[in-house]
Amino acid sequence: MKRIKPMSLWVTFAAFVFFIIFISYTILLVFYYLLYQIRFPVTLQLAFYKPPVFLFILLSIVLATAISFWAGKHVFGPVATISDAMTQVAKGNFNVHLKYSGRVGELREMSSNFRSMVHDLGNIETLRNDFVTSVSHEFKTPLASIEGYATILQNPDLSYAEVQEYAKKISESTKQLTNLCSNILMISNLENKEIVTEKTAYRLDEQIRQSVLILEPLWDVKKINLNIDLDHAIYYGNEEMLMQVWLNMITNAIKFTPKNGDISIELKETSEALIISISDTGAGMTPEVQKHIFDKFYKGDASGFTDGNGLGLSLVKRIIDLCRGEITVHSEPGTGTCFAITLPVMSA
């Protein structure tokens, strides 16, 4: 059975207006007819039935119907266009261009909001595709390494030293996958948050010292000189989240600082904020790299940012944003890098 196509919104509106007018004049005509049947004086009857009266009724119906059709088409026609565009978006087409040049304020606002929505959805889809591509690439590299070394280990002629070396490579790749999964899950969790929960008051300077001690195996093997100057500071926030910041920031500083280099960590307290700076004497960054260091999976150029999975600084940035803080970077190639984190002083 063939499905009957529904009428357009503006046609329905015009038909409704016509129906109202038709009913109104029908009632009026019935009234005239009854008036005639009651046998009112002839002069009164002629006054009601003069030709101009019927001509006026006919012209009113035609004019009102024409106006309703015109108004309906110009008001509800764009609504149908927006509906068609929404159908295209629902099918995954984010390249829909909608432009309304009429004078109806609500329709102009609706059109503008629709364009903003499509633009945001397109950006989200692009980010999603980039995210999937990046994650797939990041997983592929260590998995290929594990598969390769596992295949080599099946050779019975390997020496004990070779077996130990290849097993170590597999262990390192496994840790890389574990860190990648942990960072992805943590970022996903933080991006769904709008406020920081589980806040406590604690010594921020002691937390930074603890993170330095945790990373001692990394900076000790490179004989890095640490210059630590931390004011006594109490911070009210999520202790576990902030610990991730210091571990990531100090790990990065150690990673890009050469042997016998220097790393400086300072904490200064003002009446309004806590300012933490972490600087190193590494290779530094170009202005182009600095623009993207907080982007997910960004690893920069060949000067050193190709290691890791490119999620550490994205995680740091998200945590600082949730804390209503700010993180900035100052760096020049060959002179090292300095990150400054500002945390507002919050009371319990």
Overall description:
By secondary structure, the protein is of the alpha+beta class. The chain has three domains: 9-93; 131-191, Helix Hairpins (Orthogonal Bundle); 200-344, 2-Layer Sandwich (Heat Shock Protein 90), CATH 3.30.565.10. 59% of the residues lie in helices and 13% in strands. The protein is built from ten helices and seven strands. The strands form two sheets. Strands 2-4-5-7-6 form a five-stranded mixed β-sheet, with helices on one face. Strands 1-3 form a two-stranded antiparallel sheet. Strand 6 and strand 7 (336-344) form a beta hairpin. Helix 1 (9-37) packs antiparallel against helix 3 (51-90). The longest helix is centred in the middle third of the chain and has 48 residues, at 105-152.
Task: Describe the structure concisely for a colleague.
With 348 residues, the chain is α+β, with helices and mostly antiparallel strands.
Key descriptive features of the protein:
single chain, 348 residues, alpha+beta, Helix Hairpins, Heat Shock Protein 90, 3 domains, 5-stranded mixed beta sheet, two-stranded antiparallel ribbon, 10 helices, 7 strands, elongated
